[in-house]
């Protein structure tokens, strides 16, 4: 029975990045999971902190040519409600950055990670399914569908919302659904996007355009399920016009490049993010609507935290309580992000006038208050930085008074 330091189950973006990062720390890693059966047409916006981590893993040079920078993030009220919010522009230059992050197409990004995994000496890519787990011994045992068994000191579940690893660890989840479906597509447009991502807030959810290289953009259009079904049934010229109209023609003529994909929206949070010899990353631990570019950035912070927690490889075996310590480390970040995204999404759906008023007032304050907007931008790019900035500011004020 072959033994590894760490077995990562799930070979999507989150699992592949975690496996590469752990292998770079010197551990012998098995990355387990079949190749995807279909191409993922979505894109992922990675923020500055995540980009810095890709650079640390020597991945950025290959990824960068696929990307477009996000220099400005703009929120527009696209509703017809009585109380409408003002337009808010978040500019990376306000916090000393050239870009908040970069938008990356998922499919070629995963190809780059697949190639890197094959070139990493301490990482074995096992392209089969894990069918059973035994966590009762001093090692985690994983049974594969080719009849082999492997063992590992640490088992990382990166195997999605219905995670078998999570179930094997007997970790319960809370789930909830939204009356929404995300329609995802890429489109070309006449006028340049100027590295600006525009998020229209509508009564059914966000309509979010994110730059791609050239005069191209990706789109996540959150709609009611019946409206999403009607949108998917449109021919490409009609769909192109519908997208242009929804965008108020700010980029001129729009041409949708291929048939859209759709994904029903729901949320999920594990009751624990680790337990014993098990750690959960990505959508095995948390999932929520595609708002504010939080999903994969949160998953990458899972991987960063796990690498930081276990440190560089030594001669000792990994201890059996890593999952419990990982849970403590990740809990504040995951719960706060999940709650904030859920609250924002529900505020868009609410027809209750006081809720609409609170949302409009909040965006008005952000539009008018530069320091508060800067704090929010720093928190979005580098989680925890806003709290540190407030602490430093208070210390400075107290020091001046003492002097």
UniProtKB/TrEMBL annotation:
Its pathway is: Cofactor biosynthesis; ubiquinone biosynthesis
Keywords for the protein's UniProt record, in alphabetical order: FAD, Flavoprotein, Monooxygenase, Oxidoreductase
- Residue ranges annotated for the FAD-binding domain, each copy included: 4-332
Annotated GO MF terms? FAD binding; monooxygenase activity; oxidoreductase activity, acting on paired donors, with incorporation or reduction of molecular oxygen
Q: GO biological process: what's one of them? A: ubiquinone biosynthetic process
Cofactor(s) listed in the protein's UniProt record: FAD
On whether Transit peptide is a keyword of this UniProt record, the answer is: no
Superkingdom of the source species: Bacteria
InterPro entries associated with the record: FAD-bd, FAD/NAD-bd_sf, UbiH/COQ6, UbiH/COQ6_monooxygenase
State the family it belongs to. Belongs to the UbiH/COQ6 family.
Its protein name is UbiH/UbiF family hydroxylase
Q: Name the source organism.
A: Ensifer oleiphilus
